[in-house]
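Q: Sequence in, structure out?
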Amino acid sequence: MKTSKKLRIRIEDSALNLRFRHELKFLLDETQTELLRRRIRPLFLPDKNAGETGVYKIGSLYFDDFWRRSYTEKLMGTSRRAKYRIRVYNDDDSFIRLERKLKFDKYISKQSEAISRVEFEKIMDGDYAFLLKSDKPLLREFYYECMSNVMRPRVIVDYEREPYVYPGGDVRITFDMNLRAGMSGFDLFNPDRPVSYCLDRRQTILEVKFTEFFPNYVKECVREVDAAYISQSKFVMCHEKYNNSETEESSWE
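A: Exactly. Output:
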């Protein structure tokens, strides 16, 4: 399936003012995770946004259009694509972000705008009029997707993130744990929603994000623990888990 011409034009226009970066993902087992964590801690700093525990919960409600383009284009490896999500941290409704993640060949970027809990509920109720009236281009373009391409909620993606930043450059490493798909509706703020785990709970997804500078030390650490590179996204894994739910047994968190 090809990306629509209008969507390609909007993505390309958006790219003019965005900073793009590399994003590499690896799948780690329990031993690899602990070994890599110990090796990077002497050089990396914990992300201050993680607070005292060093870990925070991420909840993302992903949207897709009538034709499921975000899902199918990811599977097909389409070089230029976009996907929308609403993201919250630690189930806190005081900081809600509508985001669009852009993919250009080997590079990614993200656009993000704050929305309120009231605005979130309007979106969930199908009341999109306020988006068109917004002075924020991202919200207006989301309105276009909802009205013209029937963009709707598709799956909730939950996990815990342990983030680190490299003080000498724009490099970020995250350990994403306990990946799970919401299995009953799209109530993003219900901490007791039923979920189904998408990976063995001992497995961790390592993400390495950088613009130009990727320290050799980090490359060597990843190579030494023999981390397996993965191209499949959390969205795809949770989308497939959710849509296969009739034959899967969901668990409660």
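Confidence is low (pLDDT under 50) at residues 1-5, 246-253.
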